Amino acid sequence: MIRTIADWPHPPVRFRDVSSLLRQPEGFAAAMDLFIKHYRNKPIDVIAGLDARGFIPAGVLAYALRKPLVMVRKKGKLPGETIHAEYQLEYGQSILEIQIDAAPHGANVLLMDDLIATGGTLCAAVLLFEKLGCTVKEVGAIVNLPELNGSKRLERLGVTVYSLCEFTEAE
Description:
- By secondary structure, the protein is an alpha/beta fold.
- Helices cover 29% and strands 36% of the residues.
- Strand 7, helix 4 (120-131) and strand 8 (135-144) form a beta-alpha-beta unit.
C-alpha cells in the first residue's frame, strides 16, 4: 500500500510515499495496530512526532497509549522558548526545534516518523531530547530504507529501531 514515486523530489530518488497507505483505512488501521501492540508495554513516558508526517503515527500512539504528545518541528514553527539542533540534508542543512518544556527531565521518549532514510532528522531529534535530559530509547517508523544507513546511525546512538517494512533501492 506504500507507493514509490520515481525521481521525486529529484532524480534518481525513489520516494516511498506513505500517503497511499494513509488513504486505505484498513491498511492504516493495521499499521497503527502493529505499533500499538509493539509499544504497549514498553517503558515510554512521552511520544514525539517529527514534522510533519511523523505527527500521524505519533498522534495515534499517544492517544491509544494515553501518553503525552510532543511535536518536533522545523525552525520557527513552535511558539515560546525552544531549543534547536542543526542537521544535514542530502542537499543542505536544516534546523529542528522543540519547546524547552516539551518533556520532563529523565523522561523516556519514543520518536515516531513515517520513514527512516539517512537518519539525519531523527538523530537531531535524539540530540534535542538529550539536551532536555531525556533519553530516546526507541524510534518507530512505517518505512525503513536500510541502504541509506539511518537505522545504523540511530543504533550507534543507543536507540532501538522498529519499522513496519523495509525497501531496498532495487524495489
